[in-house]
Automatic annotation (TrEMBL):
GO terms for molecular function: heme binding; iron ion binding; monooxygenase activity; oxidoreductase activity, acting on paired donors, with incorporation or reduction of molecular oxygen. Keywords: Heme, Iron, Membrane, Metal-binding, Monooxygenase, Oxidoreductase, Transmembrane, Transmembrane helix. Belongs to the cytochrome P450 family. It comes from Monosporascus ibericus. It comes from the Eukaryota. Heme binds at residue 314. Its cofactor is heme. InterPro entries: Cyt_P450, Cyt_P450_E_grp-IV, Cyt_P450_sf, Cytochrome_P450_monoxygenase. This is Cytochrome P450. Gene3D superfamilies: Cytochrome P450. CDD domains: CYP58-like. The chain crosses the membrane at residues 318-336.
Length: 372
């Protein structure tokens, strides 16, 4: 899939992202009739961007009259069960019967199952047929089907739907929760927001470009990196297995050898909250990513683990950055001047526990805002 997520591909997609972001800002500016959960609004946007890109057919959540339905609650329900599957993997056998019972299950899990077994396979089929009729360019799915490298069992409709679901899941709540955390801190720290606004205020807020923003505003980049640091991304210990070499770790005159074949996992939280690397680690301080000339400190970026590292690191990193840059800038210029936090404190975004993705304290209802 990698070539579909290159920076060049993302630049081709950018006009679609921009028009969805403009629609999101317009809709938020009309939402003056009461408090709203900003994570849900972002979840609608990220579902639309990823489905538009991966299937050529958007979920249309931003365009609908309200904010429901969306995938936020169903995906959260899925996250709530993540450790059950992890520690009792034999229970995954239940999934074999899931396609047959999906239509009889109600609520969030039912929605999620229908998405996986009906909606996503139909979207993939549509993308394949559009290509066959010559109406669409090659896409992720037609490339997989035509790939001589993949064995037939990797090309079944069931298997492709699994990949489609993984993409949707990987691209939706991750990016939405980062945007939510960044929005919280920009609203809670007016000086931070002011500095950002000052750096980008002469840009056309309806025609923002990722590349131009990157060049124009190191501070925007720093705000995003700080959001990714405190948002942690995947906080669970995603394991890696060194297959061909023993790992040697030296500390205090001792040498420890971890034999090849041993799964090793580490959480991003340990690095992101390490006071030796990030002093006052619990604080949201974008300045830490800039040097004394206000330019990006690239030496520090090697400690950013939100996208993980190595051969299994996030494939959607360019996609995520494009969305994070354009949304944060558009919200800062267009919506945040009229937006205030509503019954929300730092506790509602701060890392508390791990459910694959970093979670705030139990019982929080998220980041709520009012728009005047
Ligand atoms: C800020 C947003 C995002 C964060 C923090 C994030 C984080 C991550 C992390 C930590 C992993 C590695 C998982 C592991 O170690 O096993 C990962 C994998 C992945 N991500 Fe993301 N992600 C984000 C956005 C996206 C988006 C927008 C997409 C799709 C467009 C995406 C697609 C993927 C895919 C396909 C993988 C699997 C890569 C592989 O196993 O080879 N991600 N992501």
């Amino acid at each position: 899939m990698a070539r579909y997520f290159s920076r060049g591909q993302m630049l081709r997609l950018e006009p679609e992202v921009r028009s969805l972001v403009n629609a999101l800002c317009d809709k938020l500016l009309r939402s003056t009739d009461g408090p709203l959960d900003v994570n849900t609004a972002y979840s609608c946007l990220t579902s639309d961007t990823i489905t538009q890109y991966a299937f050529g057919d958007s979920t249309g959540f931003v365009a609908q009259p309200g904010w429901e339905p969306n995938y936020r609650a169903p995906l959260q329900t899925f996250l709530d069960t993540v450790y059950v599957w992890k520690f009792f993997p034999f229970l995954l056998n239940i999934i074999r019967i899931a396609p047959y019972i999906a239509k009889y299950i109600s609520g969030d899990i039912g929605l999620l199952m229908r998405e996986m077994f009906e909606v996503i396979p139909a979207r993939i089929q549509k993308a394949i047929e559009a290509r066959e009729r010559g109406e669409a360019e090659a896409n992720i799915w037609t490339d997989m089907l035509e790939s001589p490298l993949l064995p037939p069992e990797e090309k079944t409709a069931y298997r492709l739907a699994g990949d489609g679901f993984a993409l949707m899941f990987a691209g939706t709540e991750t990016t939405a929760s980062m945007l939510t955390l960044i929005t919280y801190y920009l609203l809670a720290q007016p000086a931070t927001r002011q500095r950002l606004e000052d750096e980008i205020k002469d840009m056309d807020p309806r025609n923002l470009s990722w590349v131009a923003l990157e060049q124009k505003s190191p501070y925007l980049g720093a705000v995003i990196l700080e959001g990714l640091r405190l948002g942690h991304g995947l906080s669970s210990r995603a394991p890696r297995v060194p297959r061909d070499e023993d790992l040697v770790y030296r500390k205090g005159g001792y040498e420890y050898v971890i034999p090849r074949g041993t799964p090793i996992g580490m959480t991003s939280v340990h690095v992101h909250l390490n006071e030796d690397i990030f002093p006052d680690a619990e604080k949201f301080m974008p300045e830490r990513w800039l040097d004394e000339n206000g330019q990006r400190r690239h030496d520090l970026e090697k400690y950013l683990m939100a996208y993980s590292r190595g051969s299994r690191m996030c494939q959607g990193i360019n996609f995520a950055y494009c969305v994070l840059y354009v949304v944060t800038a558009a919200m800062t210029l267009r919506v945040m001047p009229r937006m205030s936090l509503y019954k929300t404190t730092e506790e509602d975004v701060k890392y508390d526990h791990d459910l694959a993705l970093a979670q705030p304290k139990r019982g929080t209802t998220g980041v709520w805002v009012t728009i005047s």
